[in-house]
Amino acid sequence: MALSAIEVGDLTKDFGGLRAVDRVSLRVAAGERRVLIGPNGAGKTTLFHCITGTLRTSAGRVSLFGRDVTHLPEHRRTALGMGRTFQTSNVFMDLSLLENLVLAIIGTDRRKWVMHRSVGTFEAVRAKAREGLELVALAHRANDAAKFLSYGERRQLELALALNSDPRVLFLDEPCAGLSPSERHSISRMIGELPRDITVLMIEHDMDVALRLADRVTVLHRGRAILEGTPTEVQTNPEVREVYFGHV
Amino acid sequence: MPKAARILLALVVLAAAVLLPRVAGPFWLGLVTQMYVFGLLALSVDLLLGHAGLFSLCHASFFAVSAYTTAILQVRHAVPTALAAPAGILAGTILGLVFGLAVRTRGVYFILITIAFGYVVWGVAHRWSSFTGGDNGVTNVPFPALGTLRVESPTEYYYLVLAVLVLCTIGYRVLVASPFGLTLRGIKASETRMRSLGYHSDLHLYVAFVVSAALASLAGVLYVYYNRFVNPVAASFPISVEVALMAIVGGTGTIVGPFIGSGIILGLRNWVSSFFELYASVMGLVFIVVVLWAPDGVVGLVVRLWVRAVKAGTR
Ligand SMILES: Nc1ncnc2c1ncn2[C@@H]1O[C@H](COP(=O)(O)OP(=O)(O)OP(=O)(O)O)[C@@H](O)[C@H]1O
Ligand SMILES: [Mg+2]
What we know:
Order of helices and strands of chain B: HHHHHHEEHHHHHHHH
Helix content of chain B: over 70%
Low-confidence stretches of chain A: none
Number of helices of chain A: 9
Largest sheet of chain A: 6 strands, mixed
Number of strands of chain B: 2
Bound molecules: adenosine-5'-triphosphate, magnesium ion
Largest interface: A-B, 36 and 25 residues
Radius of gyration of chain B: 20 Å
CATH architecture of chain B: Orthogonal Bundle
CATH class of the largest domain in chain A: Alpha Beta
CATH superfamily of the largest domain in chain A: P-loop containing nucleotide triphosphate hydrolases
Low-confidence stretches of chain B: none
Order of helices and strands of chain A: EEEHEEHEHHHEHEHEEHH
Distance between the termini of chain A: 37 Å
Structural class of chain A: alpha/beta
Radius of gyration of chain A: 18 Å
Number of strands of chain A: 10
Strand order of the largest sheet of chain B: 1-2
Distance between the termini of chain B: 18 Å
Mean pLDDT of chain A: 92
Helix content of chain A: 25-40%
Strand content of chain A: 25-35%
CATH architecture of the largest domain in chain A: 3-Layer(aba) Sandwich
CATH topology of the largest domain in chain A: Rossmann fold
Number of domains of chain B: 1
Shape of chain B: globular
Number of helices of chain B: 14
Largest sheet of chain B: 2 strands, antiparallel
CATH class of chain B: Mainly Alpha
Oligomer: heterodimer
């Protein structure tokens, strides 16, 4: 079998007495598009946090392309190729969009330690930052602070940050949540057009988006992975219809 | 403000600073020298406060350790300035390497731990009198000299401080505009995001802390040659608080802010304490007024008024 991009074994996360993620195991092949669905509070975001290292796991293992990263801090996992967006936009509000992108670009290389030259003199970085902004149609606002963006534009910047950290595995936590239908459409198209050398794991509430983009779907319910299958299999599964569609 | 106007303003200020000794008497010259020295100390505090978002209350420690080291070497061991001054900066910076471990904490814990560090140093300066001279401190520090090149008057020393200040300001400007400077502002804006982008945020803050301690130590050396003595007051908690206030009153995250703040606070202290004993209470009031009505300090206020004026003008 081909090398898995992500392999999670018996991952468990407790918050005090609450078990948010309960012995979840999953395996995502390189290049795959995997969508996680599940009702509110199912533990989807917590599972992402544990895989990317934002939170420490209580038990279980995580590996990235065969390498055990369970005990690595988040920034090391990013250096090894994980990238993510947050469910609630987490961008640098006081910085300009260009500076936001520059931080994403230099995060995994040594230029972040340069102290004797101004950011403005790094032509290649600035050019890449502009390209990154163009991709999400924000280039015209390059010099505005992120706090002046609309909600939808902030979601786009959020995605641009994740993409520009050059991830091999991308974790998207409800990238379309709260967007208008047209914004939703443009973001989901952008995700659909990502090259296949990036593996994508995505949490998505919108079934249409989820089913169109996904190769495989994992259903989470009360912290447990109750089912995994192709979009059609998942959609027609009676248990899923009960816990998930019954909820909507 | 357009770039040309900014450069012009900087040149005007610099020219005024250069010409000052021609018009100012010894009292004013001394006060302005002191404003430069404390402005530099406030600038070092502001690297953490205004850029990285860390509120340090132990910067008097680096300032004092460096001042004491230089003074003791120069006075008791007759070490020349060329060695005593760098040794002072080195000592303060090494202390920064130790105290920098405080960056493992954030927010209120960081503040508390730096206060505790500050008290340790003050306690040592105060109590270990066989080494530090206790309350009397170390006196009779000579003017600095480099071989045959020696400073011989307060006016010459004023120019020396001014030159160091200009160099430091330029270096500081480059630093905060660099990728490393940007990472500090990124951490201030969202540390969780920085981590997920691959930054070891603690390490960036640690490096910033040490750089800041080095700058504070440099201010300590300038201080001891200005003051010609050093006692435990230099290491005391009120100094740490006052320099943080200078940065806040002037405007954090800017370069001129800490110097403006230093000018305002030292100026007020001299003026108020000449007729009113409760100088500390007046400082408290100033601080309250700034926080309530000019939270971005004097620089923030000026920028706001400027923007309003420009808008009114274009209408
Ligand atoms: N930091 C935390 N401390 C305590 N409990 C938490 C924490 N984060 C999440 N939880 C709890 O863990 C459970 C799973 O939350 P999680 O955010 O992972 O759900 P989710 O599937 O992402 O839900 P949603 O669809 O609403 O985003 C919830 O009961 C939540 O209240
Ligand atoms: Mg969630």
